[in-house]
């Protein structure tokens, strides 16, 4: 049973009402650990990614605690340290008990809102038009199903753990993009388009790929926007994906030595799989930079619709319908991302067909 369920659900509803991408129970690891099996350092109750005015996605950390024997401000001090480590802009600590004003004031100086349940009711009413309550992402029973995936689909556990923890412990968007594709490729023979949880994991991965794609596009938008020559654009993109010119040269030359049978044999340059399709995808994303940050939440909500016994992708989900209708370019990019990952990972096309058909049906309404 998930701890602090009621409080976590309130944070989920609030984050979704702001169109913030949510992820629950993220385990934090030290990426430079010398251990073969790194141990969890701490965990995050509810993590959110909020679109900024410039289109970048900034992390917000939500913490839920009863704090029977702990000072509220001590929890704020802990959260500030985690915010600094994750380069997070803002934090919310949601407590079940009343909080003294001195604790709240000090927390505010750290860019943290320290809120009781009653405080949060007023806070959410004042900062949102209406709380989202019907989205699949608000349904804690679906989150319960989410956490059972390793036991029900053990062969897909590596993909699940990457989506739940691994992705969030990587800070470089280029690494995230490459790893996301590799993680699907590694389990492609285990993915079954007839299994709802298998489809869920695929769409969940797509949503995270879109986060990394947004970060990369927005980080280099001004440069790529003016790269009209195809060769210049492609070269800059390759270098960006491998962390700079020297890194790219090293991995490209190493790959050529491993693949070529003779030193003179020509070998294609190092790229992502389905390179031409990836180029088209990036071009399309550059056409709608401020809508691109909505793509991840569209794909994640669609993923969570598959975490139920009887899948019914009807038109009753008002949350995703609103996102799709208000962000037509984001919906187009969501379809392109799903299609690209199916091609890049060489998995059955049925994984893309259903999701694309559903989004397009919503667009026609």
> Largest sheet, if any?
5 strands, mixed
Instruction: Name the quaternary structure.
Output: single chain
Strand content: 5-15%
Alpha-carbon distance between the termini?
39 Å
Keywords:
alpha/beta; 5-stranded mixed β-sheet; globular; 365 residues; 17 helices
Descriptive account of the structure:
- The chain is of the alpha/beta class and 365 residues long.
- 56% of the residues lie in helices and 10% in strands.
- Strands 1-2-3-4-5 form a five-stranded mixed β-sheet, with helices on both faces.
- A hairpin with a 5-residue loop joins strand 2 and strand 3.
- Helix 2 packs parallel to helix 3 (101-109), helix 9 (196-219) runs antiparallel to helix 14 (295-304) and helix 16 packs antiparallel against helix 17.
- It is globular.
- The two termini are 39 Å apart.
Topology diagram in text:
Elements: H1 5-17, E1 21-28, E2 42-51, E3 57-65, H2 72-86, E4 90-95, H3 101-109, E5 112-116, H4 117-127, H5 140-147, H6 149-152, H7 157-166, H8 173-186, H9 196-219, H10 221-225, H11 230-241, H12 245-259, H13 275-286, H14 295-304, H15 318-326, H16 328-345, H17 350-363
Parallel strand pairs: 3-4, 4-5
Antiparallel strand pairs: 1-2, 2-3
Helix pairs in contact: 2-3, 8-9, 9-14, 9-16, 13-16, 14-16, 16-17
